[in-house]
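Why does residue order matter? Because the sequence determines the fold. Keep that principle in mind as you read this record.
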Amino acid sequence: MKTTLGIRFDTLALTAMFSLALAGAATAQTALETLEAAAKAEGSVLVYTSVQDADMEAKVAAFEAVYPEIRVDYIRLPSSQVFTRFVGESDAGVTQADLLATGSSALYQSRPELFIPIGAENLPSLTEVPAIIEPLNDRYQVFVNDVQLVTYNTDTVSDADLAEHLASWEDLADPRWAGRIALVDPRNSANQVSFLLNMQRLYGDEWFTRFMANTPEIVGTASAASQQVAAGAYDILVPTVPSQSGALRAQGAPIGLYTPAGLNHVTAAGVAVTAGASHPNAALLFANWLLTPAAQALQCTFGGIPNIETTAAECEKLLPAEYDLARDVIPEAEANHVFGLVGLQP
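Structure:
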């Protein structure tokens, strides 16, 4: 009798759980349909983004294929410039952007009042597949991750060079790279500052003396500097992520990607809906779409690492077992100190 009752209760419990799952799926589907109808009525969305053009154009095309009733326009700048432009407009009482999608989440943390809360309550995708890296507040969501690496010229840097002179991140100070290395200006992104702070943590201030003896050239953006790497102006460029050279590599440029040992520095890109958005539902729908398996698979084709569990064939690269997550909000004193270590003024 006990066995029979146990089986019965287990069956009832499983039936109840299955019914709840179905109810949850139905609720998410209803929420999505409601959001889609409202977004289609608005008809457009304006995104301020730091996402690379080729990547963003692919995202826009894929989204508009699913939702042809909604036109997506975007303005692309480095994260720090996106934030400066948006804050200037907002403080002046003019909100043009509906959505921000940036490699840094610094503004979403430092000025949360400029954005609306977003989560499972208004992004139905999150009720189906939860995020891997959680946001630090409710004003943004992480939509893609990257591990920072070295971009190098495959014509001037051999596999033997990498093995002998760049086995670890510490080897950026190896004299082999003297006069042949470019460093992305850390003043343009908190991610770059965070990378240098991790180098300081691992190797100390003294390492920077040896690194600066290689006379690294400070460059504005990794995407523009990748072209110079391809042209032979530099052997290596740091720190970078795959999408910044993706278009060049697709064209057959002599560019390789390499991750030395010692540090897995992960950047987590954030998406946020502006508090004064003219098209808030279209913005929410685009943010929701970014978190779907289809959008995550598309991002993987540009070298990104998904922020949801997925078995998509495109997503062979996943987050490493151990990593240091980039800090997006960094005290001014820490940032200024690391700027000084690489010969920069704040």
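The CA atoms of residues 80 and 288 lie 24 Å apart.
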